[in-house]
Amino acid sequence: MDISLNRRKLLTAGGVAAALVPKAAAAAAPPTPAGFGPMSVRPTDPRYESLLRGNNFRFVGRPDEIRVVGSTDQVVRAVSDAVRSGRRVAVRSGGHCFENFTADPAVRMLLDLAPMDAVGFDADRGAFAVQPGATLGHVYKTLFKGWGVTIPAGGCPDVGAGGHFAGGGYGPLSRRYGSVVDHLDAVEVVVVDRNGTARAVVASREPDDPNHDLWWAHTGGGGGNFGVVTRYWLRTPGTSQLLPPAPSQELACLVIWPWEQMTESDFGKLMRNFGTWHERNSAPGSPYAGLYAILMPTHRSAGSFQLFIQIDAGIPNANALVSAFVKEVTAGVTVKPILNDRRDDALVAFDHLAGRW
């Protein structure tokens, strides 16, 4: 493949990209101990309805089969079966997709990767290996307890790593450490070649890797374009540190305004101030790089809306940085918040970043 291709062209190629991976470059999957699966669940099975549903109930597909798998070999066999029978495949790890990617009516086989949830250090590759079924909370806790490191992924601990990483992976530490795929060292993917043969290949960031383009395609290309990811290897490039250090303590601030007293003028000021602050304080090296904030202007029927701020409490002057941020965002706003509270918590590796206030 021509490595000068831009991502747009490669994305347009879609499934063809996987077919262009040379057979000779195929790599065997790391050994997986005997364990779960595969399990084939069809519409008459009492488990079908439960396994069918994801996070967004607006979309509910009716695949012929939900194949629950526990290893790379089982994924290869499932994809082979789908190709042989001409069925469209969709892949689910955590089930938090907000679109209909896994629930499209055209999907006839749904691959459930939830049992593939191992997280650990691969000494052979010198990188951390994460399987797609691992939830972010499990990833954070394992990395923190085992090695004191973390990744800049999302704040919901129940999200599956598979689709989250494939889409780039962004969260409360991303202003400081980038996206998850900035730390992607290699990826194991089940692809189908031009002859219709499914197999697992490993693609790495090494420039001389014959599958380098396939690795590059997973550094933010989104899920479902190139194959079924069965393993991610993560390591921060250009540094002796394997991954970013995990914050040992978080400073969080919650500001809540009532809708009842909010005017259009004050609401507009809040929105403009919030956007302007980020325009001015997002350059590399900014002292605010470690501060992450979400402004959530819910519907008026909710009664109030909020600003949630998080920062590594170990950053110098963290409390003062939060105070300065709140002051700038609220500048010129006459409506007073009904809550402006902050606290610091020594919780594990930011896996508490959603719903633990």
From TrEMBL:
Its cofactor is FAD. Residues 59-239 form the FAD-binding PCMH-type domain. Gene3D superfamilies: 3.30.465.10, 3.40.462.20. It comes from the Bacteria. InterPro entries: FAD-bd_PCMH, FAD-bd_PCMH-like_sf, FAD-bd_PCMH_sub2, FAD-linked_Oxidoreductase, Oxid_FAD_bind_N, TAT_signal. Pfam families: FAD_binding_4. Residues 1-27 form the signal peptide. Keywords: FAD, Flavoprotein, Oxidoreductase, Signal. PANTHER family: BINDING OXIDOREDUCTASE, PUTATIVE (AFU_ORTHOLOGUE AFUA_1G17690)-RELATED, FAD-BINDING PCMH-TYPE DOMAIN-CONTAINING PROTEIN. Belongs to the oxygen-dependent FAD-linked oxidoreductase family. This is FAD-binding PCMH-type domain-containing protein. It comes from Fodinicola feengrottensis.
